[in-house]
Amino acid sequence: MTGPVLEARDLVKEFPIRGGVFARTVAKVSAVDGVNISLGEAETLGLVGESGCGKSTTGRLLLHLLTPTSGTVEFEGVALDSLSKSEMVELRQRMQIVFQDPYASLNPRRTVGETLSEPLKVHRKMNSKDSMVRVRELLSVVGLSPEHANRYPHEFSGGQRQRVGIARALVLDPKVIVLDEPVSALDVSIQAGVINLLQQLQDELGVGYVFIAHDLSVVRHISNRVAVMYLGHIVEQGGRTDIYDNAKHPYTKALISAVPVADPRRERSRSRIMLEGDVPSPVDPPSGCRFRTRCWKATEICSEVDPPLEDHGGGHLVACHHPE
Amino acid sequence: MSPRAGSEVLLSVKNLVAGFDTGEGRVRAVDNVSFDIRRGEVFSIVGESGSGKSVTAMTILGLLPTVKVDNGEILWRGRDLLKVSDAEMRQIRGAEIAMIFQDPLTALNPVHTVGRQVAEMARIHQNMSKKHAMTRAIDMLDLVGIPEARKRASMYPHEFSGGMRQRAMIAMAITCDPDLLIADEPTTALDVTVQAQVLEVLLDIKDNIDSAIMLITHDLGVVAGLSDNVMVMYAGRQAELGTVDEVFYETSHPYTLGLLRSIPDLEGPFGQPLVPIEGSPPSLIDRPSGCPFHPRCSMARNPGPCTTDIPELVQIGTTAHVSACHFASEVSVAL
Amino acid sequence: MTNPPHVDGIEISPTGALPAELPHTSQPVGLWSDVWRRFRDNKLAVAGLVFVFLLILVAIFADVIAPYSITERDSSQFRSGPSSDHWFGTDLIGRDVFSRVVYGSRVSLRIGIVSTLIAMVIGVFLGAFAGFVGRWPGALVMRITDIFLSVPYIVLAIAIATVFGRSENSVIVVLGLTGWLGVCRIVRASFMQLNNMEYVEAAHALGFRGRRIMFRHMLPNSLQPIIVYGTIAIGSAILAEAALSFLQVGPQDPTPAWGLMVSQGKGDLANAPHLVLFPGLAISLTVLAFVLVGDGLRDALDPKLKTR
Questions:
Q1: ipTM here
Q2: For residue A78, with 0-12 CB atoms within 10 Å meaning exposed, 13-18 middle and 19 or more buried, which class applies?
Q3: Residue A241's closest chain B neighbor by CA?
Q4: A165 has a pLDDT exceeding 70
């Protein structure tokens, strides 16, 4: 099909800060402030950034689990906010989510089989027998034993629970899956297996991923395109090589340089870009370019004008007054 | 960065065995672990959940009341910490060996100002007056790179960002000039740019006060960048121990090898699948027989000693590099 | 593998070589057998449970246990103390106190349990709704509970008794209508917390409707505080019933409501203390028993004792 599968334009999400006796809105936090995302068929878009950058919020906005303050999200050309409640329920089947915490993402009082078969019973009106056949298939697909369908989540390890979470996302044959830090809570030796599984599923099922993570190495490994977020903005976006080998935004460069690499000689010979200070509070972001308070290149224009995203060739977008 | 040859051995752990009782039996969290730490050295203990790395550190300082030590010695500058009195231990904690925890938000008391908490260390251990202690505290906050230290000293922990809090915890730890800093996952909860800053601070401080650092982490990148010596732990036992170059480039244990191969490389070629380690970390109650890693080991021989005999530490080459594998010499070939 | 699994007709190769065995885990959390084991270790709680159990037996088999009926008079003994004929003595008009106390258990249990059930149903539904929906509907529900809080149940009971007459049912209605506030708050708090759980988010993402999420996903995970509250609520309902009966707003004579018996006997406290003592003891022990069971349940279900 032509056109992106998932497209978000000018997404803004504000959260009110309430105070006072009557819980009036005292201030607003712009968690996401004018974000554009587009995801093609069977593609993986990596969304990286540090805490408070808005990547998790963006992920949920894309699935309409949160309603945007302004902006639109379109799935296969259909605007999500134009849908009625039942139409949205229908559409949800095609966009799913995998969460970070393998312990909280499964209902502890239901067996894995019940959790996986429920969507089939609700949406596809399958009976118990047919749905269990499908459930066993799915468990196999994600590398778990089908006999364990009648076990409870606490009987599985973290990595296995995460696989169940992935199976749940696959149950209704989605076109797009948003994965919010899917491997961050897993041990390193387990992460690799889950990452391989995700790639294999994409190859075989043609499902697209929005992969939200803070671990740059993992994102580089699995993504086709990457968007770097800082305080609610996308500061740089492009293909894998654009971002990792050819970064033009100072924040992206600092981020990549800060990632430790498991190679002592390389670590010893590296020169790291050290950023000053911490991420500013999203309640009161700096004027102009939000990154200027930590940027070594900041000049006067940076405090006055918020740089827009500009195309530096081939879809490599950078929002900076002084790109490389 | 490397310790001077012949520098003083500060900590010597010998054959430490420790565990605790759970509802279902005795768990041996630390199983026959031995290592030395010298002044000026950064010694990293790497492992995943259940490896016993944190318990080892906490046992050295006697911070876990439910943990019973079944065997071994913990020699701190010649004295066995397992045999000293409670009062002596309290004196050592904070003044000679200090600890930095993972989550500064819960490790710092929310109802006291940061300055006061740092100063408290000086007051308790060095008997300083309130005024002197506060001056010292401000100096320490300055040393760890907290801007406007005097002003910040009268602020509360929740007013600090994550990175600042961790620096404050480091300041607290170094107030009494300890000889050993134990840092338990000090940067795991921090953003990566802040992590880089905090690790830099740790290294500077170590040189500044001429102490050693025991770094406990699961992040091999952090280990590669900071350590002089590395110990890899699995299921409470030592898997491998050596200098950082030896462990990373002359890997001699299948678990270490598995870990290194399963991490995506920031600069490597695209499109190569990762190599996971099969299976899950073992239960410490229901231990596998023989080598604890054998159910997940791609090199395990069955039938063979892997399933029946617990491997002892064997020396690799002529240095202090050791590995607990029956086939340690074949691992490097596989690299 | 002989028959590779298929998804949508596409053959899927098994991914990785993940052995399918489940790791050893500690005993599952919150399984009733585990809860029972912990409960059993709590001697007070078990004592309470035994008492409640006996009380229920007494209520069921009252006809067999009580030697006299509740209206039968022994004209030879008025206001006489405990004797071999009348274990608890007789009351002002010669009725056997023991039998009346025994039959009174039916009154207390019936009122206590039914009114608590009504209160729980109202409270759970309103609390679930308030917690799940939140925002202004949730706030509205909480303002309604505040309004109800300001109405003392005693005043309400008097009003209803005046209008509709005194009876067991009027007490049940009053207690049911005023007793739902506590559980409403608890359920609301629980649901508000569960809203943030990722498996609830997942249910939304899977397109499940609100009702299904509330009652099939969230409510089963809120059961613990509800059960504890409900158990203790029965005890306090019985106490409230006793108070209302004492104030002569509850069931009328000859119904052997314990509170009513205490009220009838209070005038003669000096000479015939047994008239107050035995029904009073019945009230105290019953309420205490329910509270002990509730406390015991709470400790047995306490998340702090759970292991992963």
A1: 0.86
A2: exposed
A3: B270
A4: yes
